[in-house]
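Posting for a labmate who doesn't have an account.
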Amino acid sequence: MALLTRCRACLAPDPHLFLPMGDHPPANSFVLPEDVGKSQPVYPLETQVCLECGLIEVDDQVPEGFFEHYVYVPSGATQMHEHFAGLAEVLRKAAGEGLVVDIGCNDGLLLSACNGLGCRTIGVDPAANLAEIARERGVAVDVGYFTARSSEALVERHGAASAIVTTNTFNHIGDLHDFMAGVARWLAPDGVFVIEVPWAKDLLERNEFDTIYHEHVSEFSLLSLARLAAFFKLALVDVHRLSVHGGSMRVFMKHADAGTRSSAAVAEMLAEERDAGMLRPETYDDFAARIETVRLELKAMLKSLKAQGLRIAGYGAPAKGNTLLNYFDIGPETLDYLVDRNPLKHGLYSPGMKIPVRSTEALKEDRPDVLLVLAWNFFDEIRLQQKDFSAAGGRFLVPLATPVLMN
């Protein structure tokens, strides 16, 4: 077992172990066809929670250099285009004429929207392959990992940042204190740091265990972010609730000595977390018991569908889907293949279970009877895109919060 001995946010000792999921390959380590017969490196995925600040966390075991060639991109989902267009407006207003920085800028979707509004921008990302896609969008990218040390050169090269944003990247960071030291250095005295991440309270209430994987080393409560910010003399000044990714939050931080008063929303969300029992061990033990019930129900439904002679494919090959497939032991004996809109994954095989990944066009050619929706966070969008599949009698099996089969 690989267990944390202290919380990576507030540094409290001995986080509580509540959902040990066994050995998994990294959830985005898709397999080349020529490597299907080879064994993959696997690492323990043991889920803990800090009962001082409510941070859900796993030990950081991602191999060195893992993020330097990455296959996740937000552009595959129409919802993310709309979402980032709205965030770009927020950043333009916050930064004015100043510099907007996106740490973990991925394929440049957000910064291209910012550029369209006339913002001055720079992205930072370790993935050279994604940086090339971003540059094709007209986004300038500094390729490399963001650390306290690298921030010194970034400040010298680009000047202070009026707005720094990180969307679904902060949950990938093993050394949060090092990262935050770099942010505090780069952020202008009156600047704002914006973090978008899944909200741990939503994860718990909606049984979203599959949001946890090796690349997602942390699932944040607002309290954990407040405790972390205080180490660097940053303060939470606002928070927005988001529906994206199964329930997320957009958190705004500023230098504490800027004197910005926190919005009422901050106190309200902190109170909600306390009332929901996010600092009590039984909350997490009950969650683990519910996930076991989901596992048994989903496996039984899939077994019944196969016994009826129905053909099942998976819709989406997201990292969260690979957590579910590996933990629940659902492989090619059950799912004929996965489809995904991201061309970077086509022709590859899913980590661990080694299920082939195809284009969504395969559904028109092959016409399976049932789609297990692994990208459940985009189900409304998927259902709209696949109305022909549904009209022809195809059904969707949505695994969370509890398994449901629907037309």
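Reply:
Got it, the structure tokens are right above this. The radius of gyration is 21 Å.
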